[in-house]
Amino acid sequence: TDTSHIRNFSIVAHIDHGKSTISDRILELTHTVEERDMRSQLLDTMDIEQERGITIKSNAVRVMYDADDGETYQFNLIDTPGHVDFTYEVSRSLAACEGAVLVVDATQGVEAQTVSNANLAMNANLEIVPAINKIDLPSAHPDEVREEIEEELAIPAEDAVCVSGKTGEGIHDLLESIVFLVPPPEGDARAPLKALILDSYFDEYRGVVAMVRVFDGSIKKGDRLHMMQGDEDFLVDAVAVKRPAEVPVRELAVGEVGVVVTGLKDPAAVRVGDTLTYADRPCAEALPGYREAKPMVYTGIFPIDNKEYENLRDALEKLRVNDPSLVWDPETSVALGFGFRVGFLGLLHMEVVKERLEREFGLDLIATSPSVDYHVYLTDGDMVDIRSPQDLPDPSSIDHIEEPYLKAKVIVPPEFTGAVMQLAVEHRGEMADMVYLSDKSVEMHFEIPLAELILDFFDQLKSRTKGYASLDYEFDEYRPSDLVKLDILLSGDDVDALSFIVHKDKAYPLARGLCDKLKEMIPRQQFEVPIQGAIGSKIIARSTVKAVRKDVLAKCYGGDITRKRKLLEKQKEGKKRMKSIGRVEVPQEAFLAVLKVD
Ligand code: GTP
Question: Does the beta carbon of 137 sit less than 6 angstroms from any atom of ligand 1?
Fold first, then answer.
């Protein structure tokens, strides 16, 4: 088979520069969806993705383009996740492409994420097609933007296409540029199958459906396939492409992108980055770049109302079906009762999952402070995995603790290297080296504890580099570290759900910060609430929530009963999101106070 008419690419852009609008126009212009069926942002399907403008899952849509040369081209438009929690997923989606359309707003020019996205795409060896968008606006200055692209990104931009996602102007030229600039996939149709799994989702009726890119060979219904990392076989139930609704096809040929219905019932069996091959005629080696989907951070998730425990378990089971990276174990807390210790890819992933649990399953939840997976070596020689501060054994039985370290890579313009270095040092990072990629960008490598990276590192990095930095990381090794457990006491009682494992040098400032934050967050009660931070029996910080006798009805005059009722209801509403810890009413957010400490 001939791959010369296939183009696999993704679209990358700074936020709001028009990526979704341009994708929609492409679907329209190629008659993939009729105008009357256009729903804007067709590629993002989940509610939360649409609301927050972040893509969580990868998606690939096939469009057929009748080019000016009289030939019809198959475009596979691959949408990639847009957050550092999903760097691995992004890298796998980009590995399925030969090119990337880099959208730059003609009124804004090159911005931070333009730089970081362009870097990701270039790192993946993709051919870049620059597109200058919003040229319909009077304030558009495409010529300057073209120069910026050349100077700041070192991308030749004489071919940059000027487009308007709004009016559709130039979109035709963009499609022609994709035909000319993005190379067709290379592959051997007769070789044993080699296909990359970009993503997967679960379908109640058909089991796991995998989104794949074929590198060699082809896939047909009835083929017996083998997953090289998962080491499992299945019979292909069907193959299809998304346009964007699923349309069955006879085969997924070499170079193509589409979906494979596996019939498998266990979502965890199909792994992003795994290689599919023929069971009876396997390829010699798997595609490079596979990584085990391993949770990076663990938090406790507890229902405010303990009667919801089983519902929470059901909800987690349901979510895992489309998110195999989710793992959990039951957890019991003296303060919060029964819940689960859940593993996530990062804090955004945690937030999204918590929000879905609350929204889609109507649960009221408390999430507790995030923790990484510590290796605790006991004096008797055993090692235990600790993912929750409250599970930390008594200090007298601990020989030493090891924590996970990452190798991190940051790409920034040279003027920010000092700021990045300082940030790294503040987070216990050690600079390894620094390489000039061009006079506009520097690649910095350092080693840093995962625990430091999960809290606020990424946000800080973005704000201190005005958004210009791109961050990528991978697990390196476990290293011994001087860690202690910081306990928080409310009214003298140790609240297990508020403890935190922290490096000894940071325990004092963190305890101080936590006591102050909690004082702000915990509303005044009818008695005074002392807040204390302690390591073992030693109190290292304290603050106090003053007592108040709060009579909400006092302000209401006379007998306006509806007004009174409204106030009482409002108060009740507020209470629902509180949890009683002993006699103290603590708001839901207080359990994540550690994320708010600066
Ligand atoms: P995120 O998904 O949030 O990252 O944004 P995006 O890059 O996908 O941008 P989106 O397509 O949502 O466009 C952002 C805003 O710019 C929207 O209000 C669009 O209507 C508007 N917009 C996009 N393209 C054009 C254009 O060519 N001209 C004008 N005038 N407005 C545009």
Answer: yes
